[in-house]
Amino acid sequence: MSAALQLDAIAARIAALRTDGGGSVTTLSNEARASTELLGALPPRYGEVLLSLLDRLESSALFSEESCSFSQKDLLDNLQAWVDKARGQLVS
Questions:
Q1: Residue 70: what pLDDT?
Q2: pTM for this structure?
Q3: What percent of the chain has pLDDT over 90?
Q4: 77 vs 44: CA distance, rounded Å
Q5: pLDDT score at 90
Q6: What single string gives the DSSP state of each residue in 21-86?
């Protein structure tokens, strides 16, 4: 799968998580971590940031929104910003 298609798949998983009951943090995380074409096409820092965001998102999924120091909504917003910046890197 090409880097652009892998990025589109991550964006789709983020969108699914934003809907009520849609998607799975585990599925998003597993697919994003397995996106070797995408991560290879981006500067190394992008991979570091993505893995950090995924770690925090996985942690937030273990707790209710009130008891976790990571807001799942904010993390999804940050992941979407990562996707947008990664898309800009792929285009340039």
A1: 65
A2: 0.88
A3: 67
A4: 21
A5: 92
A6: T-S-HHHHHHHHHT-HHHHHHS-HHHHHHHHHHHHHHHHHHTS-TTT-SS-HHHHHHHHHHHHHHH
Residue 65 is encoded by which pair of tokens?
Answer: 């929104």
Helix (H) or strand (E) holding 90: helix 72-91
The tokens for 17 are: 């998580």
C-alpha 12/C-alpha 17 separation (Å) is: 9
The token duo for 66 is 């009130």
Which residues of the chain have a pLDDT value below 50?
A: none
Tokens of 84: 């947008």
Q: Which amino acid is at 87?
A: R
Sign of CA dihedral 5, 43, 58, 21: negative
pLDDT at 69: 62
Would you call 90 exposed, middle or buried from its count of C-beta atoms within 10 A (0-12, 13-18, 19+)? Answer: middle
For the four alpha carbons of 2, 33, 22 and 11, in that order, the dihedral sign comes to: negative
